[in-house]
Amino acid sequence: RKWRPLPLSTVELQKLAARHLRMGSEQTMNLAEGLYNEGFLSYPRTETDRFSMTDGELGQLVQEQTGHPTWGAYALQLTQGGYRRPREGRNDDKAHPPIHPTKLAAALVGDRARLYELVARHFVACCSEDAL
What we know:
Elements: H1 10-21, H2 25-37, H3 55-65, H4 72-82, H5 110-126
Helix pairs in contact: 1-5, 2-5, 3-4
Enzyme class: isomerase
EC number: 5.6.2.1
Family: Belongs to the type IA topoisomerase family.
């Protein structure tokens, strides 16, 4: 069994971006803060890896992703009965939720698009069933 991922903290975002996108920490944070300022991502500086939002609120965020041309069909499956509450990590800084997409961003390009995709796919994976 492969467990679905824990929600994203800043450190985990930096690790994933380095591993999968070959981005350094500074570049990752500059891009994430830009996406936050444009309203595409939640605040990117957080140690929290557990959502305090309701399933309804999280479901709305998944619903938002159904319009994406790449992973929208998968997000749609989650809204039709596949949704699972994200796992809970051990950290909650009580200030900010884990990093997640706040609205659909289908028209981004370049590194901004790559980082948004990493966060959005990770979020959708958090709301999925564990793999067998």
